[in-house]
Amino acid sequence: MKISKEQKLETQRKIVSAAADLFVLNGFDNTTMKQIAREAGVGDATIYKYFANKDKLILGFYDTRGADALAEYRNTDDLESFTFAEKLQLLVDTFLEQLMADREFVELSLKQIIKSPITLLKDELEVAKSYKQELTTLLSNLDHDEAYPDIPMQGMLATLLTDYILGITFYWMKDNSKGFSNTTQLTDLSIGIIDSVLKSGFINKAIDMAGFIIKTHLLRGLSSGGGLLNMMQEFKETLAKQ
């Protein structure tokens, strides 16, 4: 019997959820594909039709959760009435909400990715491709908005914004503030900066500055103290002087 696309997606969700639970319980190295298959309620051979190994399972977790987050985002009521900043905020919020229940696994898996980046990230994540496509569309739509001047390098900017969402995820993972208030503050501040930059036309220099912040600080897994928030505030003040 032919399996529908939705049935395949549901099986993937079961497998990655089982893997997340077992990786947290037993550790990555001490968990086997057979254990994951049994926990997910699929055959020992079936699991390999979806994921070739445990590394692929980690990436599959983010692809699956990201796809669900994008579906939730696109199904938001009156989405077309949202501003660019509100849509970017929603993209961040829906992604983090999808990860919330498995936050302990997210920390474990990101450490594994950092430990073996060549093995795990030799191919671009499907979720990254999907977010780049969505963000490219958002930027393209600004061509028809008089509040924004022409935006060059939209493909590069979409890539940077995808990295930005990943950077926020790293920050959130280490955020021990009540209700993740530091992450909320950082997201609000940084999205305000992004929107101001796009409206100002100060895009080329800002891309260089933002890329430095993301790659040097966020993607290193900077602890969620006040340092990054202070740096972003200084960045905002610098832009205001331009």
TrEMBL record:
Pfam families: TetR_C_23 (PF17931), TetR_N (PF00440). It comes from Saccharophagus degradans (strain 2-40 / ATCC 43961 / DSM 17024). Keywords: DNA-binding. Residues 9-69 form the HTH tetR-type domain. Residues 32-51 bind DNA. Gene3D superfamilies: Tetracycline Repressor, domain 2. This is Regulatory protein, TetR. It comes from the Bacteria.
